[in-house]
Amino acid sequence: MTCSRCRTKPVIKLPNSNISLCKTCFLKYFERKVRKTIRQYKLFKKGQHIGIAVSGGKDSITTLYVLNKITKPQRTTKLTAIAIDEGIKGYRDETLKFAKKVCKELKIPLETTSYKKEFGKTLDQILKKNDIKPCTVCGVFRRYLLNKLAQKLKLDIIATGHNLDDEAQSILMNQFKNNITASARLGPITGIKSDKKFIRRIKPLYFLTEKEIMTYAYLKNLATKYDECPYAKDSYRDEMRTLINNFDRKYPSSKHSIINSFIEILPLLKKNHKKTDINYCKSCGEPTSQEECKTCKLIREIK
Amino acid sequence: MKIIAIDERNDIEKRLDVASIIEAANKLNINLEEVIITKNNELVTEKAKIKENDEIKFLSVISGG
Ligand code: SF4
Ligand SMILES: [Zn+2]
Ligand SMILES: [Zn+2]
Fold first, then answer.
1. Does B32 touch chain A (CB under 8 A)?
2. Which of A25, A112, A202, A255 holds its CA 20 to 30 A away from the CA of A143?
């Protein structure tokens, strides 16, 4: 077994084909794939100010690293790392320490805010007193705070570390729960262009698998061992991941097929689920589809 | 042949008598979609040849958060 391109020792067999690549060829392949996604889906323009949501995990740190590499020669494009500290002891404190270190090395400014500062309690404290699903609260609060921070920093766009596996899981989860409206909000670029208060999201790693990202992160020293949230276990998403990966092992390319077929129907989904009017929360003024945003509702409900 | 196999996610280290990396993964109940593999601390594919006393590490690619 040798690298399919240069015949030296391979470090990975690409998940979607019979191609094996050596370190040099794989790094090139990976970066080319990110560039292609940016170009094809017009994720951002030169001269924009891009916020990168970093958690300190391998996906977000790799996004930061690769975007920095790609935009550096452009000079006019500005990058700022943004982080939300949910307050998860033994996990987020460690990953954020790592994010800080990488930002310093790459000379990218890092802006942080926390649940404690914004809501008065950490996620650990909330979960101790309330019987709610961790990822539900966490997802709502994080999206809210990222958007708020992005407005404050006048960012044009927020890049996240979402990968092909995350997206395939979300697509099937939405199918299994008959929630197509949620699927209409997926894709490599999301959000409403015309809304001043909602900062659009982009996913530069959209077409790369978790395995490819981990390989890149390992080769570039961008991975920590604190890469799994203690609350992530046994969630619905976790089961979906196992299901898809077992399937992919048995029937190769299943995962890529989920994404490729989804990308084809996505324009239709978006058209059918177009938002006519955007509301602003009556309590906090942030964009929402309802009268009051999910964050304000949750804050009132939790003890 | 006997190798040392390490499943980092579950903190398991075992001496296994296997002929290939794929066989070792099967014995440890590891899905090869969910790991990258090092052989004596060098990144390799699942098809890499192994020999007596090699240390094979399975590093989880799964992240949450
Ligand atoms: S796994 Fe769930 S609880 Fe943990 S950081 Fe992610 S969304 Fe939050
Ligand atoms: Zn090569
Ligand atoms: Zn609100």
1. yes
2. A255
